[in-house]
Amino acid sequence: MKMENRQPIIRVRNLVKKFGDFVANDNLSFDVQRGEIFGFLGANGAGKTTAIRILCGLSKPTSGEISVAGFDVYHQTDSIKRNIGYMSQKFSLYEDLTVYENIRFYGGIYGMTFREIKTRAVALIEKLGLTRYRDTLIGSLPLGWKQKLAFSVAIFHQPKIVFLDEPTSGVDPVTRRQFWGLIYEAAHNGITVFVTTHYMDEAEYCDRVSIMVDGRIAALDTPAQLIRTYGTANINDVFIKLARNPGLIPAEVQI
Amino acid sequence: MRTILFLLQKEFLQIFRNRMMLPIIFVLPLVQLIILVNAATMEMKNLKIFIVDQDLSVTSRQLVDRFAASPFFRISSRSFSLDEAGEAMERGKTDIILHIPANFEKDLVRENRAEVQFLFNAINGTVAGIGYGYAASITGSYNREIIAKWYQIPKGVIAQQSIEVRPSFWYNPELNYKVFMVPAVLAILVTIIGAFLSGLNIMREKELGTIEQINVTPIRKHQFIIGKLVPFLIIALVELGFGLTIGKILFDIPINGSLFVLFVTAAIYLMTILGLGLLVSTLARTLQQAIFISFFFMIVFMMMSGLFTSVETMPNWAQNINIINPIAYFMKLVRTILLKGSGFRDIYHDIIALVIYGIAMLSLATWRYRKTV
């Protein structure tokens, strides 16, 4: 039992993804442990979204060994999909469905029973303070609420892992803080959180972060350790230091 | 199965929440039936004829009277000058010129033969051809009458001697063009609803990015396709029922076949056309691409389907293309079921073809739909 818990829930070895000549992910290797909040940092175009899409089974890698929740990304994408939640960069709940209808739909297609959907949806809507808006079309809600709802829908079926692709972009600081409250709660309930962001301050909320520069992992450690290693005041400076001095990037990052 | 139910529930909620939907379902068929059926007529009535009677004899006047009395012709003008008539033709004021030369009657009496001349504006070949047919038949029958009268042959003898053609028009005894057009417009309606709405629906999900959220769920490909297929199949069938009712009320079209046969046929056809629409939307990357591709196929298939021009008069190669034209099958089937009262036993050949076509299209669409890019 103990041994199994030590198994990483996401295991990536030598992941390469090419689009023609362009190498979006250049030989990525890392592990994510169960229950961890794992941050994937990088500038726009660093290859974060490409990597997250591969891990979710939305895109096939060019090469590399990747397993998610114990399943292989080449052949077992359906099993992976049953065990993960995903929130994409683009808001993708149905704007022409109400809050409740969206929750019911996603609960339903993940195979939850009607009773389960009903009781948990009521609890969720109440927790988010949306009781009054239960039957409001999502399209008419403010962005911050939508993002919180999208996250809650992504973990509604209690997946093992939830992938969040820049979940807080375009959201005000107060809502961002609330959003991270939801992420902590999910992690507390045993859901592994894999989150990409380009807000460096958010990195400090993560258990471990990997910093991506030009399709490669430039550094991977706990935020505190990264700050110590690079002798900077915060993660933001670590990132700038790495981005400006490619020489600092080790050939092989210790996992 | 449960997954499909949740998908269907979602689709129906979205479809009926779309404010454009009800007008599309109820106004579109009304407008199409009323405009297309009344406008797209092949019957030639009121062809404008310019009379140049340079004889002004009893015989020539009688001939002209025949044209005046015919419902197919309307005398637009008269003159003695052929030039004037030619000018009228050039200005598009007339379709046909009837030229009766001077001495028409005299020649007829003396030499037992005389000539009249018809000039047709053949810019529209069909009008010219059909006009010629009518004109020749009016002139011919007048000719027979003259022979009978002048030779004092008792009435009826000539008729008995010559071969008389007495047509009997089956399935549309009054040759009412509307009876021919209403089923065709119904077929087009069902096609538009089927092919466009289903395809556009998937494109919308692609453009909004919601399809990506679907693609990370364990929904199976066939479940997704069925979820998109069934709602539009049902809507198209409702549309057919509504259109049929309108056709019955407004145009009193005959419904000789069984409605059961008609709707089963329509459902089978819809599998094909919806499959085609879904296939296009799985291939297209943007809405524009999808619309353009659908439009291209729609126009070609519709024009070749026998909507206005009959398939039987098309060249052989064109008829062979129609083997892969789903609209041509349905066009023919709707007409034979409604007008001829055909049952499954008469049309099973085409039905089987459509079933095979439908299965092929839906399988292709399912296969082409990628949850992974």
Secondary structure blueprint with pairings:
The complex is a heterodimer of chains A (255) and B (373).
Chain A: H1 2-6, E1 10-19, E2 22-32, E3 37-42, H2 48-55, E4 63-68, E5 71-72, H3 77-83, E6 84-87, H4 99-109, H5 114-127, H6 143-154, E7 161-165, H7 173-188, E8 192-197, H8 200-203, E9 208-213, E10 216-221, H9 223-230, H10 235-244
Parallel strand pairs in A: 3-8, 3-9, 6-7, 7-8
Antiparallel strand pairs in A: 1-2, 1-4, 4-5, 9-10
Helix pairs in contact in A: 4-5, 6-7, 9-10
Chain B: H1 2-17, H2 21-39, E1 47-53, H3 58-69, E2 73-79, H4 82-90, E3 96-100, H5 104-111, E4 117-120, H6 125-150, H7 157-161, H8 177-208, H9 210-215, H10 221-251, H11 259-283, H12 287-304, H13 316-321, H14 326-340, H15 344-368
Parallel strand pairs in B: 1-2, 1-3
Antiparallel strand pairs in B: 3-4
Question: What do you see in this structure?
Answer:
The complex is a heterodimer of chains A (255) and B (373). Chain A is α/β, with parallel strands linked by helices and 255 residues long. Chain A has one domain (2-248): P-loop containing nucleotide triphosphate hydrolases (Rossmann fold, 3-Layer(aba) Sandwich), CATH 3.40.50. Chain A is built from ten helices and ten strands. In chain A, α6 (143-154) runs parallel beside α7 and α9 packs across α10. The two termini of chain A are 23 Å apart. By secondary structure, chain B is α/β, with parallel strands linked by helices. Chain B has helices spanning 2-17, 21-39, 58-69, 82-90, 104-111, 125-150, 157-161, 177-208, 210-215, 221-251, 259-283, 287-304, 316-321, 326-340, 344-368, and strands spanning 47-53, 73-79, 96-100, 117-120. Classes of the chains: A alpha/beta (255), B alpha/beta (373). The A-B interface holds A 56-60, 77-78, 81-82, 84-86, 88, 90-97, 101, 104-106, 108-111, 137 and B 2-3, 5-7, 9-10, 13-14, 17-18, 208-210, 212-213, 215-220, 371-373.
